[in-house]
Amino acid sequence: MIYAGAPVFGASHVRRFLPVFAVTCIVLLLISSAGSFGDGSTEMSYKSTLATGHFPKKIWQTWKVDPLGFEARDLTTAKTWTAKNPDYRYEVLTDQNDLHYVETHFGPSGFNRVDIVRVYRSLQLKIIKADLLRYLVMYVEGGVYTDIDVEALKPIPRFIPDRYDERSLDMVIGIEIDQPEFNNHSILGQKSQSFCQWTFMSKPRLPVMMMLINDIVKWLNAVAREQKVPISEIQLGFDEVISGTGPSAFTKAILDHMSMKAERPVTWLDNFHNLGESRLVGDVLVLTVEAFAAGQGHSDSGNHNAKTALVKHHYHASGWPAMHPRYNHPVYGEVEKCNWDAECVRQWDANKAAFDALPPDEQIKQIAMKENSDANKKPGL
Predict the structure, then answer these.
(1) Would you say the pTM of this structure is higher than 0.85?
(2) Domains with residue ranges and CATH for the chain
(3) What is the per-residue pLDDT across 207-227, written as a single tens digit (0 to 9) for each?
(4) Which residues pair with 199 in a beta bridge?
(5) Burial grade of 150 (CB within 10 A; 0-12, 13-18, 19 or more)
(6) What contacts 301, CB < 8 A, 6 or more positions away?
(7) CA-to-CA distance for 174 and 352, rounded, in angstroms?
(8) In 10 A of CB 73, how many CB atoms?
C-alpha cells in the first residue's frame, strides 16, 4: 500500500537525479581532501620514508618572500637546486606563512607542542626564528635544508658516496669549522669545531632534531628570565646566537646524539679533526669540510672546484651579525677577522692583554688615538 502524500520515485526519477548526486559526492570529496591535504601529504611522505628507508625528495628554503618575489641573485641561486634535482619537490617558507606552518604541525591538531608554538610566535629576532624554523621543518618532513644564498654544485644524490647504504643513514651533515687548537680561546673556543647547518639532509621525526628543538625552547625561556623580559624582547650578541641556535647548538646536539648511540663519548678530536673522507658515526654520515664549506680560507677547506665540493655558500644573506654584533675591541677590533690564522690570533690576544694591563687613563688615550686614526681614513678626509 502506498500512503497518500508519500513521494514515489520511478526508474526515470532515479536516472534523473543520479548525475546530480554523483557531482555532489565528488565536490564533497574534493572539499574534504583539500582540508586535510597538508597533513595527509606529510604523513604519506613520512610513511614512505619508513617503508623505503630513503630520504624524502624535498628541498627546503626559508626567506622573507616567496620565489615569485625573489631578487635576481636569490632566484639564480635557488634555480641551481631545482635544475640539478628536477625530481625533487621544492618549497620556500616565508615571513608570511611560517607561523601557519608551525601552528599546523605543532599545535593541538599536530604534535600538540603548544610550548613550541608559543615561543615561535613570540620571537622577534629573525636569525633565531630562521634557525629554529629549519629544525622544525626537518623534524616534521625531512629532506634537504639549504640557506637561500647557497648554490648547488652537484645533485643531491652525490651527498651520499656509493659505499654507503642510504637506508642505514638518518642524517647527512658536513664540517664547517675544524680549528680545535682554539678550543680554549675565550672568544673563538665555542666556534672552533662545528658542523655546517646552512645545508644538511635528514629523515623526518629524528629524536636528535627534537632534542635540539627542546634545548632551544628551554634556552630561550632561560634567557627571557635572566633578562627579565618576555621572549619577544630578548637581546642577543653574536656568540649567543651561535651557541643558542646556530652551528654550535646544532653541533652539540649531534655529538650528544652520537655519544648516546655509541654509549661512549664521541669527541671532535678523535673523530672529525682533519677528516680526509666521509665517516659514518652511528646513523649520521659526516662529510669533509670541502663538501658544504669549501673555500673558507681555514680548516683545510679546499676550493669549490674540487670533485667533493657539493655546494657553494655565497654569504649574501648573512647580514644578521649587524643586529647581533661580535665582540669588538675598541682598539684591536674583532679577533674573527684573523680568520683562524694562529699568528694573527696570538698577536690579537697579546695586544688585548697589554691593553687590559694599562691604567684607565692610558686606555682612554689609546682608544682616542684609534678613533682619530679611523676618522682620518674615511673617504674624502
Answers:
(1) yes
(2) 41-327 (3.90.550), 331-370 (no CATH)
(3) 999 999 999 999 999 999 999
(4) 146
(5) buried
(6) 289, 290, 293, 294, 295
(7) 34
(8) 13
